[in-house]
Amino acid sequence: MTGHNILLAGFGGQGILFTGKVIAYAGLMEGMEVSWLPSYGPEMRGGTANCSVCLSEDPIGSPLVTEPDILVAMNLPSLEKFEKDVVPGGLIIVDSSIITKKVARDDVKVIYLPASEIAEKAGIKGAANMVILGKLFKETSFCTPENLDKGLQKTIPAKKMDLLDKNRLCIRLGTENRFQNPGASAPGFIFYNFDSTSSWKDPSRYRIPASAAGCAPGSALGAISP
């Protein structure tokens, strides 16, 4: 487990701040030093929003992330604004359902994840942030699966706790390595369904044949780069 300086950015209403809170709470459960600093435009929904999250085993000097080792970009303005700030060797996760532009740099790892499309095809429109969170967790292991789930439960308001399993499902979709590389032929694809008793940590309960999920066998949810 190592520390991270994470910057999440996109439009208001995409769950940027919510995702940052989940990460921060998960870090707290790990016993790490944590900071969470939101920043948003005059109009929350539809305006700009970004969130700085620091996870560290040492005291944190400043909560503002100016040189992230992880950037999550959920719209084009955010990618164009913050791409240059990512440290060499860092990670950029792009919602390629929304952003078609490619990252110009060759000194960072880039994942093009069609998060909005994945969430929508799973029947949970608007949960692209949780798909991205799942991929971020898969790539970095910034906490244990148990503490990620605790962070999620801590962040969801009590009046919206009925959405817990849907968020768990989207996290699971993000962690799965079942997306095809661009241009690759797609094999029979596994879609997902969930029931109210399932946890995102138990993927076997979500798997059903693609044909039973309302799509043709051999279709795929989306594509990411390796």
Task: Please give a structural write-up.
The chain has 226 residues and is α/β, with parallel strands linked by helices. The protein has one domain (4-179): Pyruvate-ferredoxin oxidoreductase, PFOR, domain III (Pyruvate-ferredoxin Oxidoreductase, domain 3, 3-Layer(aba) Sandwich), CATH 3.40.920. Helix content is 28%, strand content 20%. It has helices at residues 16-29, 76-82, 115-121, 128-140, 145-155, 164-175; strands spanning 4-11, 33-40, 48-56, 70-73, 91-95, 109-113, 190-192, 207-209. The strands form two sheets. Strands 2-3-1-4-5-6 form a six-stranded mixed sheet, sandwiched between helices. Strand 4 (70-73), helix 2 and strand 5 form a beta-alpha-beta unit. Helix 1 crosses helix 5, helix 3 crosses helix 4 and helix 4 crosses helix 6. The model is unreliable at 179-226 (pLDDT under 50).
The CATH C-level name is Alpha Beta
- CATH topology value: Pyruvate-ferredoxin Oxidoreductase, domain 3
Q: What is the β-strand count?
A: 8
* Outline type: globular
What radius of gyration results from the CA coordinates? 17 Å
Helix tally equals 6
Beta-strand portion reads: 15-25%
Counting helices, strands and paired strands, the structural category is alpha/beta
- Multimeric organization: single chain
**N- to C-terminal separation?**
23 Å
Sequence of strands across the biggest β-sheet = 2-3-1-4-5-6
* Helix and strand pattern: EHEEEHEEHHHHEE
Low-confidence stretches: 179-226
Instruction: Kindly report the average pLDDT value.
Output: 80
Largest sheet: 6 strands, mixed
The CATH superfamily turns out to be Pyruvate-ferredoxin oxidoreductase, PFOR, domain III
